[in-house]
Amino acid sequence: MGISVNGVDVADREIEAELVHHQQAANPVQSAVHEVILRRVLLQEAAALGIQADDEDDRIEALFAQEVKVPLADDEACLRYYMSQPERFRSGDLVEARHILFQVTPTAPLDMLRQTAELILAELQARPERFEELAAQYSNCPSGAIGGNLGQLGRGACVPEFEDLLFRLQEGELAGRLLETRFGLHIVQVKRRVAGEVIPYATVRAQIADELQRQAWQRALHQYLHILVGRAGIEGITLEGAQSPLVQ
Q1: Is position 114 within any domain?
Q2: Contact, 26 vs 109, CB < 8 A?
Q3: Residue 142 burial by CB count (10 A; 0-12/13-18/19+): exposed, middle or buried?
Q4: In this structure, are 100 and 181 located in the same domain?
Q5: pLDDT digits (tens, 9 = 90+) for 140-168
Q6: Which of 42, 66, 179, 223 satisfies CB 3.0 to 4.6 Å to 186 for a cystine?
Q7: Does one domain contain both 59 and 116?
Q8: Residues whose CB falls within 8 Å of the CB of residue 73, separated by 6 or more in sequence, listed in order
Q9: Domain end (from 165, 183, 198)
């Protein structure tokens, strides 16, 4: 493919080997090429710094450990985070919810599915009383048979993105946008909320510190990757950003 990194050619076989890990990407070939290039940049940087390890993944991890440093989250930052998200730090919160699921399948491409889901959402915004009828007609979830009703849900009962939306909606509120999860596209409504109890700051302080630390490390890591990519001599392709499964 005529691609090189700092004067070293990237073999087609490397890209072919990586391609099998990117079949779900919007552009599998591009995603695989970017991954191979980014890995090459990281390994060259590790070699330049004299970092040794048993295999390539360990060398990359050692490079990150040496070069990407972030300060520990202090108590002020943790407390500010705790105070800014009171709804998150509660125990026993319940929501009674319902949804309409538009499942992505090979015979129902995402774009076509999204158009249909957007039309149904617009109809429900205008005529919310049709929720049960439309759930029975369109939902690919077994709950469609009972009007999309999911019953009472507590924290931890759903995938994170679904839970996050559920616990941000007010009682009776219909989400104003489609929610996309690995299951497909969802129209979501919270029918009722049951408030739990506030979790004391001292109980969740360590959890908050870990989360803030992880967020700070991710930001620092992405900045580091952009710097490495920006100064690398990459020929034959333009590497758009440094997003990669390597940094999840």
Answers
A1: yes
A2: no
A3: exposed
A4: yes
A5: 999 999 999 999 999 888 999 999 999 99
A6: 179
A7: no
A8: 208, 209, 212, 213, 216
A9: 198
